[in-house]
Amino acid sequence: MKYKFLLFAILQFACFRLIAQKSYEWKEATSGGYTYKYVTNDPTKSRFYTLKNGLTVVLSQNAKAPVVEFKLAVRAGSNTDPKNATGLAHYLEHMLFKGTDKFGTLNYAKEKPLLDSIEILYEKYRQTADLLKRKEIYAKIDQVSGEASNYSIAGEYGKMMKSIGGKSSNAHTWNEETVYDEDFSSNATDQFLALQAERFRNPVFRLFHTELEAVYEEKNRGLDDDDRKIEEQTSAKLFPTHNYGQQTTIGTIAHLKNPSLVEIRKYYNKYYVPNNMLLVFAGDFVSDELIKKIDRSFAYMQPKPLELYNPAPEKPITKIEQVDVYGPSAERVKISFRGAAQSTSESKMLSLISGILFNGKAGLADINLNQQQKVQYADGGYQQMKDYGVFSLTAQPKKGQTLDQARALLLDQIALLKNGDFDESLIKATVANKKLDLLKESSQNRFRVNAIMREFILNRGVNWDNTLASLDAMASITKNEVVAFAKQFFLDNYIVTYKHQGADKSMVKVEKPQITPVKTNALATSEFAKALSLLPVKPILPKFLDYRKDLNFSKEGIANVITVQNTDNSLFSLTYRFDIGNWNLPLLNYAAQYLPFLGTEKFSAEEIKRQFYNIACTYSFNVGTENASITISGLQENFYQAVRLTEQVFAGCKADEQALTELKNAIFQERENSKSDKDYIQAGLKSYAQYGPKNPFNTNLSNDEIRSISSAQLLSQLHNFSKYKHIVTYFGPETMDVFTAGLRKLHYLPKEFLPEPVARKYSSVLTDTNEVYFVNYDMVQAEVSWLRNTEPSDPKLEAKIDLFNSYFGDGIESVVAQSIRESKGLAYSTEAFYLSPNKKGRLNVMTAYVGSQADKMNEAVKSMNELLADLPEIDQSFEVSKNNTLNGLETNRITGERIISAYFGDKRRGLDHDSRIDLYEGLKPLRFADIKTFHKEHVAGKSYKYCIIAAEKNVKLEDMQKFGRVTKLSLEEIFGY
Question: Which CATH architecture best describes the domain 547-746?
Answer without folding.
Answer: 2-Layer Sandwich (3.30)
